[in-house]
Write a structure and sequence with these properties.
The protein is of the alpha/beta class and about 190 residues long. It has a single domain, classed as Glycerol-3-phosphate (1)-acyltransferase (3-Layer(aba) Sandwich), CATH 3.40.1130. Helices cover about 40% and strands about 20% of the residues. The protein is built from 7 helices and 7 strands. A 7-stranded mixed sheet has the order 1-7-6-2-5-3-4, sandwiched between helices. The radius of gyration is 16 Å and the shape is globular. It starts with a helix and ends with a helix. This is 1-acyl-sn-glycerol-3-phosphate acyltransferase. Keywords: Acyltransferase, Transferase.
Length: about 190
């Protein structure tokens, strides 16, 4: 319930402050596991990616945020869960895969941290997508978070990972990651 209220408020705020437009929402399945893989420009990106989606989107957030009084419980109630940064967080990966196996939606930023959009992706999103069998939707955030400026978010067509599922080669995660990142970069470039 809190998630729905926050999402409704954010839709109004984004429409007013950022002249926010979304396209490609029809590409997001209405049920089943989905990974939304987006570029990462700002701290506001998780709310940007999830605001127009009619399903609850879960995110990893750096573990330190959960220690902040009031804020930690608030983001947890919105579906966020902690990830330890600086290495592989097996518990966070396990949580993400379990959520997806329950048919939920995960928002993941393959770059790992905010960037100008030209950094290589990290392998976590690819690992989670392959292990869960989730549908992967590339997402492009286009524009800057400047008041009254125009912002767009594009939800792309699902990425077909079927060629990678049975692949046991050592570089499969790198190739899946590059496939995801290439789709995101192409969508950003197209505007």
């Amino acid at each position: 319930m809190l998630y729905g209220i926050c999402r409704s408020l954010l839709r109004i705020i984004y429409a007013f402050l950022f002249r926010f437009e979304a396209s490609g929402l029809e590409n997001i399945p209405s049920s089943g596991p989905v990974v939304l893989c987006s570029n990462h420009l700002s701290l506001l990106d998780p709310t940007t990616v999830g605001t127009k989606v009619d399903r609850k989107v879960h995110y990893m957030a750096k573990a330190e945020l959960f220690n902040v009084p009031l804020f930690g419980p608030f983001i947890r109630s919105l579906g966020a869960f902690p990830v330890k940064r600086g290495g592989v967080s097996k518990e966070a990966i396990r949580t993400a895969i379990n959520l997806l196996k329950e048919g939920k939606v995960m928002g993941i930023f393959p770059e790992g941290s905010r960037s100008a959009g030209d950094s290589a992706g990290k392998k976590g999103a690819a690992m989670i997508a392959l292990r869960s069998g989730a549908t992967v939707i590339p997402v492009a955030i286009i524009g800057k978070y400047k008041i009254f400026s125009k912002m767009r978010i594009k939800y792309g067509k699902p990425i077909d990972l079927s060629d990678f599922i049975q692949d046991s080669s050592s570089d499969v995660l790198e190739r899946v990651t590059e496939t995801i990142m290439a789709n995101i970069r192409r969508m950003v470039k197209e505007g």
